[in-house]
Each structure stands twice: as C-alpha cells, then as structure tokens.
Amino acid sequence: MEIANRTTPETAHHIPQFLSGENMERLTQIMYPKQAAEGDYLFWEGDTADRLYYVHKGTVKLSKSTEDGKAFILQVAQPGDLFGEFGSCGPQSYGYDGIVMEDASLGVILIKDLEVLIWRNGDMALQLFKWMGQMQQFMQSKFRDLLLFGKNGALASTLIRLTNSYGEKDERGIRITIKLTHTDLANMIGSTREGVNRMLSEYKAAGAIEWENGRLVITNLPFFQAMVGCADCPLSVCRI
User: Fold this and answer.
1) pTM listed for this prediction
2) What is the DSSP letter of 17?
3) Residue 184's closest CA among 89, 45, 63?
C-alpha cells in the first residue's frame, strides 16, 4: 500500500483536487475565517446545517452519538477537507457533532452563498458532484470493513487508514503524527476502550506496533493488511 508524507497532506480526497484552480479561488472568496480551539464544538447533531467547513489547519472529528451515550467517529477531517451537509432539496440538520481535535483554522461557507456560486458557474456543480461521489465511496469502505471483519479487523483497517492519512516514515516503520487516545480508536470502530486496549496489547506482543511519546508507530504494516485481505484501495478511499 502506498504511503505518502502527510505533514502537509494534499491527496486525492481533498476538495482542491476536484475543483479547478479558478473554482477553488471562487470558493475561497466566499469563506468566512474561523479559529477554533481543541475541544470546541463547531456544531451539534440536530443543529441546522446551513454551512460547510473547509479545514486550513488542524483536525476536526465528525462524531455520531447513540441514545445510550456511545460515540462513533465517522471521519477525521484534516487540512484540505470540506465537510458538512449539502445536496438536500430542503432544509436539513447535521447528523453528527463537529468537534475540534487540534486547534483549527477554518473557512466557513454559507450554503446560500455556495448555491449562488454554483448557479453562476455550472462546471463547479459537476466538480462538486464528483467529490461527493468520492466521499460516498470512502464512507462505504469504512462501514464495509467494520461489518465484514469484526472489531479486530475494523481496528486493523483503521490503523492502515491512519498510515495513509497521518503516516510519516521513520527507521522503525510508520509513525502516526496525530495523537489518538484508546477511546478515540474505540469510537472509530464502535468498540469499547477495554476492547481496544486488549487488541493493541496483542498487536504490540506480535511486534506490529510500538508507542513513542504517546504516538503510535506501525512497525509491521503487512501484518494488518493480511488481517483484512487488503485490496490496495486508492488513497482517496483508504483514509481515516
């Protein structure tokens, strides 16, 4: 599986890869700047979804909660990502919470402004549709791994995706540059912190992972690829 430097990631799933330079400039011009600190909520599940967010710097997790208090992380948005609810024929609400994981610099795009922009520039609509299709494939692949391979396979898949989204090669393997707690990892696969602790201990005993200053190092990527029958998906799909 291809691993790229993710210090300043610019891969196929980011919105600038779908929009022409001219349309990306138009989109940038209608953005309102917003600074947000770690732990801030950009919006809550159920809030009116009248705006999109573009990440210039930092990370934001999109997390859905269940009635019994469990959380499931749908996506970790990073620089270059656009997120929010868009495409419905009528008013809609956010189906998840938007929570800042690392201090973030964002561009806020009002849906009404974007609609005017699309109306004036028809080619932009086609480019956005292609991006939305890519995002749908990405979400389908995550749920596929969770349903087909169980919790152990889902965690293995998550670690592979982390190497593609936040992996940095060093002499021991691939270091994940973002700090994640065991609870974060559990929420990414719909498991418990205790269950993730057990699986990570098994991976460490097998020599597949190490820890360095609170960050995970993948020392044996093929170990995890074999667990899920890795199909070498494109980076635009195999991401966190």
Assistant:
1) 0.77
2) G
3) 63
